[in-house]
Specification:
The chain is α+β, with helices and mostly antiparallel strands and 130 residues long. It has 2 helices and 6 strands, in the order βββαβαββ.
Length: 130
């Protein structure tokens, strides 16, 4: 089995707990869930604004993927966690701008009662590098 490699970038926020931004094993990159923390200020600048939170989350994921040598085209699975499924359509529109690829990844969307730091959305993903 391949050894695990930690992926870390200053272009995404530091983890808020005892975990890494991502782990690479073989050709797979497992990205931890990202919330809307701005990596420069380390603050949530748009708490409660689903459009801006979603955009920040996807920018954070993009930074982590890039640090691992991947891009959105390499993502094979995402999971979206929402505190309110009424935000699904708005999230879907923003998500489709980032995942505007020939073969979009598999995906699950789950409503949860709460998320870290009171945010509205969290997204994690798995990428595969050929």
């Amino acid at each position: 089995m391949s050894s695990k490699k930690v992926i870390k970038t200053p272009n995404a926020p530091d983890p808020v707990g005892p975990y890494n931004q991502a782990i690479k094993v073989g050709n797979f990159i497992y990205c931890s869930g990202q919330i809307a923390i701005d990596p420069i200020s380390n603050e949530i600048n748009y708490k409660g604004n689903i459009e801006k939170e979603t955009t920040q989350v996807l920018k954070n994921l993009q930074a982590v993927l890039n640090a691992g040598g991947a891009k959105f085209e390499d993502v094979i699975k995402t999971t979206i966690y929402l505190t309110d499924l009424k935000n699904f359509q708005t999230v879907n529109e923003i998500y489709s701008r980032f995942f505007n690829v020939e073969v979009p990844p598999a995906r699950a969307c789950i409503e949860v009662s709460s998320l870290p730091k009171g945010v509205l959305i969290e997204i994690d993903c798995v990428a595969y590098l050929d």
